[in-house]
Structure to design on (128 residues):
């Protein structure tokens, strides 16, 4: 299976944070699964770190380096992803989450999230 991790799941997985659910640990630890992170997550970490948000105090360069070193593939943002955002209902206003949802839909990759609001969207989304 192919998984796109949302930003929080990516950070929690790298830090072995207790908030990462057992189901997420299993999905990310299964070597038969292909795991992706989005460029938008790195961008989100960089912006929120600059704003000194408590959950985003990690160096985005180091997060990206560690994700790549752990075998995650980087998913760039393409025009088709941006266009897909227009089709999403306005359940969630966070632009970073909305592009992740659009990327998952366009690419047919299951978005792995801990956010119940994101899980309300149609498409390949798994609440973990």
């Amino acid at each position: 299976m192919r998984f796109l991790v949302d930003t929080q799941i990516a950070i929690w997985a790298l830090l072995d944070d207790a908030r990462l659910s057992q189901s997420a640990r299993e999905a990310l630890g299964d070597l038969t699964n292909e795991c992706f992170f989005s460029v938008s997550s790195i961008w989100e970490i960089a912006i929120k770190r600059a704003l000194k948000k408590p959950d985003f105090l990690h160096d985005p360069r180091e997060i990206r380096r560690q994700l790549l070193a752990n075998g995650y593939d980087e998913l760039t943002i393409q025009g088709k992803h941006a266009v897909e955002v227009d089709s999403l209902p306005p359940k969630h206003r966070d632009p970073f989450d909305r592009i992740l949802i659009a990327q998952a839909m366009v690419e047919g990759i299951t978005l792995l999230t801990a956010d119940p609001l994101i899980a309300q969207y149609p498409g390949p989304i798994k609440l973990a």
Summary: The first strand starts at residue 2 and ends at 5. The chain has one domain: 2-127. The radius of gyration is 14 Å. DSSP finds six helices and five strands in the chain.
